[in-house]
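Following the same procedure, sequence and fold were stored together, as reproduced here.

>
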Amino acid sequence: MTLIMLLLIAPLSIFAEKTISNNLQGWSKGENKWVEGLLKGYTEQDRVPFRVDVTGYNGEEIKGLVIEHGSLSKKDHAGFQEAGNFKIVDITGGLPEPGDIIYESTAFVVTGPTSKTQPSGDEYIVYTIEITDAAVRDALKSKGSFAIYWEALLAIGSSKWPGATLQTSFPTGKETIPIKVSPLTADPSLKVTKSIDMETETYSAVGQVINYTITVENTGNVTLTDITVTDPTATITGGSPIASLAPGETATATASYTVTQADLDAGEITNTATASTVYNGETIADDDSITIPAVAGPFLKVTKSADVESCNEAGQVINYTITVENTGNVTLTDITVTDPTATITGGSPIASLAPGETATATASYTVTQADLDAGEITNTATASTVYDDETITDDDSVTIPAAAGPSLKVEKSSEGTYKEAGDLITYYVKVANTGNVTLTGIQVRDDMLGLNETIDSLAPGESRTFTGTYMVKESDFLEGNLVNTASALAVYNDEEIYDEDSVMLIPPEPPLVEPEYNVTTQPQPEKGGSTSGDGTYKQGTVITVEAVANSGYIFTGWYENDVKVSDSAEYQFTVSGDRHLVAHFQKEIIVQPEKPKTDPALPRTSGIAGALGLGMLLVAAGMVLRRFSR
């Protein structure tokens, strides 16, 4: 059977003249009655009812009543922490029960507790009870008996006692009711409870301060001193060391901790507080930990940009910059950047990105004809990673408009002659897409050829050629030049794209008839000589007329309209009109020279030398005469 320790009450005395005191009694839960021996059914911190009976009471002679409780500070006087709830109970009808109260504390005054020391050196606590109400005293005197009832709090550690007994004795003079108990075994013990002082028991930002409250309780049966409170992670901000802590008492220390990025990345913060002291060479310690979860906010933001604002030709390369920012509160790792359309050229994967940090990836894309035809290019870049089995992702798109330049070129050419009615002329109509976008539904027309065709689709750089023939009519020559025009028309984004080209054929000029002119000559006088070179000549012909003098005549010049035009017997000129040329001849006059006289002073010339000299003289004389005859 479990024994419940009884508070040491030694000595307990009733000071009264001619007053008899019965045994001290305690209420036993196990037996549901007042007993003078072992108490049952109580645990630590229970309030145990006690009573002492007073009989033969004479109100005038009794001055007061003193109850002495044993000290709680000595090892052999422990078990109860305090006494209280004093009441005076009427026991006229027999042994009282705890609820049989007739007088509350208004009828008497309790003074205490007061600490005193016995001759043995043990401390004890004294409560003095004085009945101050005269009416109560008279009532109790008339009854002659009553009981004093109170409660004592069972101390922590009392359950370690093996038990207690009640004994009574009545020595001469002062009636004493001693209690004998087993000695107390010291059991020093601490209990630490750690809590946080926050509206929400989570954290979410670097720099956030977490405040802790550390409650230290003495759960042993001895007072502990110089208790140190530590926390290897947090900073103790107050309440340590604790100078002294009696059994059952508590004290509070405080601490604080500033959240770091590593704490957010770890997902929780665990702090352990320890309270420790030394009792009789033994370290007494306890600790308590508290774990605070992080409110993780993993987020990414992607921003995409391009190095051009528009594109205008197939094959053009567009370079993209993809900026990835960690906009959350935890570090993210192994971030992959993708773009389903462009080619990632660098910067992916991103090994690690702390909150607030950014990293850059690059990508490129080659423009196609389909992009130009579509009018724009939209590329989307995505950054993604996994945090605590959750996919964290973001994306951004860039749309680059195509600078459309729709254009058509018509080129027309021909083969054949345009000389007379019935001639066949072959025409070629070439339609080319000279722009940078595909054109559709292109209408090609040439009314003269009866050409009316539609080109379904024509990509940039492509062309189509149409052929047609035309038979020249007589009426075409009346119009003069023969002009043939072909055109091409398409519609792109509600805009008409048009071009045309013409071929002009010029009719041949009638054959040129070069003019012919007559050239006639005649000698004058006729017997003076002859002329040649007469005839009909085309304009521009270079001819020569010639005059030959007959014997005895000499040529003196060519004359036209009595104007001398040449001294040369052979006269060359370019025919530019009709001409009649007259060759003039002059009869040659020969003068006989006089025979020279011989100067006797001169040497004579004879023989061949003489003959030559005479001949030369005659020729000279003839020339002179001819000149004079002109």
